[in-house]
Amino acid sequence: MEIKVLGPGCAKCSEAEKIMRTAVEEAGITATIDKISDFQEIAKHGVFSTPAVVIDGQIKCVGKVPSKAEALAWLKK
Question: Is the pTM of this model over 0.70?
Fold first, then answer.
């Protein structure tokens, strides 16, 4: 599983990354988590509001920090 957390590095973006890392650990799955802060790369995903979470190419969350429950639900699908 490939997870990307998109954002310039603000506090909310860092929190989103932390939640995704915690959720992956709790779910007991293997995943790579990349933090993408390059605006051109973020725009390639069609995202213009951060933070955003992309899992295996699918945008799961834009413009807000996901809850841990949301993140766990995404990982179990």
Answer: yes
